[in-house]
Design goal:
The protein has helices spanning 2-29, 48-54, 59-79, 85-106, 113-136, 140-166, and strands spanning 44-45, 111-112. The protein is mainly alpha-helical. The protein has one domain (2-166). A two-stranded parallel sheet has the order 1-2. The termini are far apart. 23% of the residues are buried.
C-alpha cells in the first residue's frame, strides 16, 4: 500500500513539475506572447560581478528570477530525494543554462550570467526549503503530500494570475 501511495504522490508531483515547466517556458522563453523591442538582437553578458558592483543589476528582476526558480528546487527535492544535493544542484544549474541559452538562440532574451546565478540561487533556495520541510516530518510521504498541496494551490493561483494578466484584468501592464 505504501508503494502505491508513493507512486501516486510521485505521479502528482511530476504533473505539477510539468505544468510548472510549461509556465516557465511560456514566461521566460515566449515572454507571455508579447514581442519586446530588445528581441531583434542577441546579447551576451558574461560579467555578473560587474553588474552587481556597478549597480547595473535590476534588483526586481533578480528577485523575480530567484522566486520563479524556487519551485524547481522544491520539485527536484521531492522527486529526486535519493540523489545527492550536489547532483540536484547540477541539474538546477543545467536547466538554467538551457533556459539562458535558448533565450539567446530564440532572441527572446540575453544570455546573462547574472540571470544564470540568480536562477540557480532560486533553485538552491527551493531545494534547501524542501529539505527544511522534510526535516520537520519523519514521514517522507506526508512531507510530499504537504508540498504537493501547497504546490497545487500555488500553481492554480499562478495560472489564474497569468490568465488575468493576459486578459488585462490586473492593474499592472506587461506590454
Amino acid at each position: 500500500m505504501e508503494s502505491k501511495n508513493r507512486r501516486s504522490a510521485d505521479h502528482f508531483t511530476t504533473v505539477l513539475l510539468v505544468v510548472y515547466l510549461m509556465i516557465l517556458v511560456w514566461v521566460l522563453l515566449f515572454k507571455l506572447g508579447v514581442q519586446f523591442s530588445y528581441m531583434s538582437e542577441r546579447r551576451v553578458n558574461l560579467n555578473p560581478v560587474n553588474d552587481i558592483f556597478t549597480g547595473k543589476t535590476d534588483v526586481l528582476e533578480a528577485v523575480l528570477n530567484i522566486l520563479i526558480f524556487i519551485p524547481l528546487g522544491v520539485y527536484l527535492g521531492v522527486l529526486y530525494r535519493k540523489h545527492s544535493f550536489v547532483k540536484m544542484l547540477i541539474i538546477i544549474l543545467s536547466i538554467t543554462l538551457i533556459v539562458e541559452s535558448t533565450q539567446y538562440l530564440l532572441k527572446t532574451g540575453a544570455f546573462d550570467t547574472t540571470d544564470l546565478l540568480t536562477n540557480t540561487l532560486g533553485g538552491l533556495i527551493g531545494l534547501i526549503f524542501f529539505q527544511c520541510i522534510a526535516s520537520l516530518f519523519s514521514d517522507s510521504l506526508k512531507t510530499q503530500r504537504i508540498v504537493n498541496l501547497i504546490a497545487f494551490i500555488g500553481t492554480l493561483a499562478l495560472i489564474l494570475l497569468l490568465i488575468l494578466l493576459k486578459m488585462n484584468r490586473l492593474p499592472i501592464m506587461y506590454k
